[in-house]
Amino acid sequence: MNAPFLSHHVPIGARARGAIRARFSALDGRSALADLYEAGGLRLRFPRNAQTCEAVLVNTGGGIIGGDRAELSFDVDAHADAMITTQSAEKIYRAQNVPAEVALSLRAGAGARLEWLPQETILFEGAKLKRSFALDMADDARVTLLEATTFGRLAMGESSISGMLADRWRLRRGGKLVFADDLRLEESIGATLDRKACGQGARATALFLHLAPEAESLLDLARETLAPATCVWGASAWNGLLAIRLLSPAPETIRAALVPLLETLRGRSAPRVWQ
């Protein structure tokens, strides 16, 4: 697939360019890295994992600032199994003018299993972030996606933040669009999230998506697993897609809900770097 990479025009204030392009293949009954390209301050590391081929994304720059750009592309070939996570929560610092931009492109071949399970993204006061998510998967592939976002350094009392977040999701199965979602929060984000119809005081959000032939049959199990959670959540399923959204004033309550959800629905442990 053609990755939804960002314009090559460099705006005033652009700082860093980072890129990861990785491909995973099934070799001798095991999944392994087949190709890797790294640029800028982004790196992939591979801890041993008997359940899957696990890749940990590391940002050696320690965070992202306005004008930075990251282009991430992960291909999982037919019948391969790969899980990508991040070493730590990603920090998005204040932007002077232009936003930071992150573009994620994923491909899952026939019978493949692909999991994108990063740790939280934390938006600091004044942060501006544009993200795009694109997926091209085979009809019988299994894909699990997660994005969790925290608004403000809550431990520092930074709760009524301003800034911008723009997310764009376009997911395709067998060449057909099966999920499209756009989110834009800007200026007084804290005030927007305080509104009852928007966030009812939330400062942490998460979107969990599972696309697989059996996804709809997992809806009751997902709801049962989430029943004890102390955050607000909603789950629905249609056309081979399970979608769950979570909201909370505190990011730790969302993580506490996500860990058992991931382990129950996936049949394997949450990423070790989450611990």
Description:
With 275 residues, this protein is mainly beta. The chain contains three helices and 17 strands. It has helices at residues 189-194, 219-226, 251-266; strands at residues 17-27, 30-39, 42-45, 53-59, 69-76, 81-86, 90-92, 100-108, 113-116, 121-123, 128-137, 142-151, 163-173, 176-187, 204-211, 232-238, 241-248. The strands form two sheets. Strands 3, 4, 6, 7, 9, 10, 12, 15, 16 and 17 form a ten-stranded mixed sheet that branches. Strands 2-1-5-8-11-13-14 form a seven-stranded mixed sheet, with no helix packed on it. The longest helix has 16 residues, at 251-266. The chain is globular and about 50 Å long. The two termini are 34 Å apart.
- How many angstroms separate the termini? 34 Å
Indicate the mean pLDDT.
90
**Over the alpha carbons, how many angstroms does the gyration radius reach?**
18 Å
CA-based shape: globular
Topology, number of strands: 17
Portion in helices: 10-25%
Tally of individual helices: 3
Most strands sheet:
10 strands, mixed
Please report which band the strand proportion falls in: under 5%, 5-15%, 15-25%, 25-35%, 35-45% or over 45%: over 45%
User: Structural class of the helices, strands and pairings?
Assistant: mainly beta
Poorly predicted residue ranges: 1-13
* Pattern of helices and strands: EEEEEEEEEEEEEEHEHEEH
Q: Can you give keywords for this protein?
A:
275 residues; mainly beta; 10-stranded mixed beta sheet; 7-stranded mixed beta sheet; 17 strands; 11% helix; globular; disordered N terminus
Structure at a glance:
With 275 residues, the chain is mostly beta strands. 11% of the residues lie in helices and 48% in strands.
